[in-house]
């Protein structure tokens, strides 16, 4: 686990605003967080250089692109040696439909978030994963019906134990 970054109230405000408005200008960001432009830009660059900000992206409305299915798939491996975990992760990374992969503890080893054009495509993907001999002993799938809380911002203040009095 990495050492936690040392962030002050302005860094937290920058992160919170960029989660909501990643395309904002430095002028807008500096005004929103209460800093002048130059220090705000320096702080944002520092957050990027230290890896606290990993990147920027667009939140795409899949429903506007056409039919699709989102599936959470619980995967159990037959072996838990480090080599077997790496083999599964490398194999899963080859498929663009697997948009998130978590190695977890509990009743199974991995939780995958899969987005596919439909159930048939998802089923074919799972067959390919099994054919790839990645060590999958069993899997169980859950098809998403609705996403009432998808795309929420990370709870930065809660994680850091920061006080809301900084707002």
From TrEMBL:
Keyword field contains Transcription: yes
A family per Pfam: HTH_24
Origin: domain of life: Bacteria
Limits of the HTH asnC-type domain: 7-68
Matching InterPro entries: AsnC-type_HTH_dom, Dimeric_a/b-barrel, Tscrpt_reg_AsnC-like, Tscrpt_reg_AsnC/Lrp_C, Tscrpt_reg_HTH_AsnC-type_CS, WH-like_DNA-bd_sf, WH_DNA-bd_sf
UniProt keyword annotations, A-Z: DNA-binding, Transcription, Transcription regulation
SMART domains, per database record: HTH_ASNC (SM00344)
Gene3D superfamilies: 3.30.70.920, Winged helix-like DNA-binding domain superfamily/Winged helix DNA-binding domain
Protein name: Lrp/AsnC family transcriptional regulator
């Amino acid at each position: 686990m990495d050492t936690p970054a040392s962030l002050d109230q302005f860094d937290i405000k920058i992160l919170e605003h960029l989660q909501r408005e990643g395309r904002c200008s430095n002028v807008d960001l500096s005004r929103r967080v209460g800093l002048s432009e130059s220090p705000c830009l320096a702080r944002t660059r520092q957050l990027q250089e230290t890896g606290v900000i990993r990147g920027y992206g667009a939140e795409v409305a899949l429903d506007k692109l056409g039919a699709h299915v989102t599936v959470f798939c619980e995967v159990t491996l037959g072996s838990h040696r480090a080599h077997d975990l790496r083999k599964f992760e490398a194999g899963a990374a080859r498929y663009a439909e697997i948009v998130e992969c978590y190695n977890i503890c509990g009743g199974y080893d991995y939780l995958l978030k899969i987005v596919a054009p439909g159930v048939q495509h998802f089923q074919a993907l799972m067959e390919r994963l099994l054919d790839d001999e990645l060590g999958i002993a069993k899997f169980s799938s859950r098809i998403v019906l609705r996403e009432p809380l998808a795309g929420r911002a990370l709870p930065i203040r809660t994680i850091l134990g920061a006080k809301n009095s900084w707002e």
